[in-house]
Design goal:
Rossmann fold; alpha/beta; six-stranded parallel β-sheet; single chain
Length: 356
Amino acid sequence: MSDEATTASQSPRPNLAAVAALAGVSVSTASLAFSGSGPVSAPTRAKVLAAAEQLNYAGPDPRARSLRRGRSGIIGVVIEDRLRDAFRDPMNIAMLDGLADETGSLGAGLLLLTENGDGSGSIESAPVDAVVLIGCSTRLFASVAVFRQRGIPLVAIEAEPMDDVVSIDLDNRAASHALAAHLADLGHTLVAIVALPLDPERSRAALTPRLEASGTGFTAIERIRGVREVFPDAPGLSTAGSFIEEGTIAGRALLKDEATRPTAVIAQSDLLAVGVLRAAEELGLRVPEDLSIVGFDGIRVDGIAPHDLTTMVQPAVDKGRAAGRAVIAMLDGAKPRSAAFESIFHPGNTTGPPPR
């Protein structure tokens, strides 16, 4: 190692005091110059930044700033899905977009966590200022209790109602009822359900009273309840996630036996509905002449033309924004009200009267 390299490696790291001394200003003035706040003239700020560049000083340690403010500058986002699956669902991405849009004004970062612990850290020990729960189940109650003890503000998007948690709700039950009523009005009586995951293991299983009673998937359960208000005995299957391939697997199982084949399928997401559509095409079934299919979400899915999916269109981005506004209000010491959103029925061309 050269003498020059040895000297460089042994040189102390530059600090704000050294920058202030080189710029000929006080440490407090140098600090204000870096933060961009306070009465610091443009020439003084330029002098401080030039001194910092000369000393190769990148700025005050954000960790120290966080300690002084008593905040980490991080908002935790807890997602029920595994992270490797979460970003395959356009609804999660849309909600995160809306949340990031609103919280961007805080200069805060988003830390993604999951119920099953495969996120960026432990839920209970994550250094966060606030937490947003997206579609989380009753399994999270213990973690929520820890957040409460730490005094961390909590907002829940489509999660089980919890005390002291601001709720951002969607009309899952009423919207699913509307879809079922649409099929009933068309004359369908043999209707099946393709559901989102109901249990922590994300089991592919037949819908049974026991599975529904013990299920932890809040959104899935609410949507099933809406359908059962119209079709109390509708059979169905739970899937391993909101993916096209899962809808195809479920569709094959429900449609393969002509003797028990439903005339309509209510899928709990548009991606699942597209999977059922593909299963129907594999079996030579025409949609909607032989089989009606409805979805939920209102996303754009490429490659299904000439089909236009009958579905409920939900305001996913707006839900994320509402959660972001609630976070901002709570961090300011306010008590925001819960918010509720409604879905809009989109009558596509994938539903019609049952085959004669």
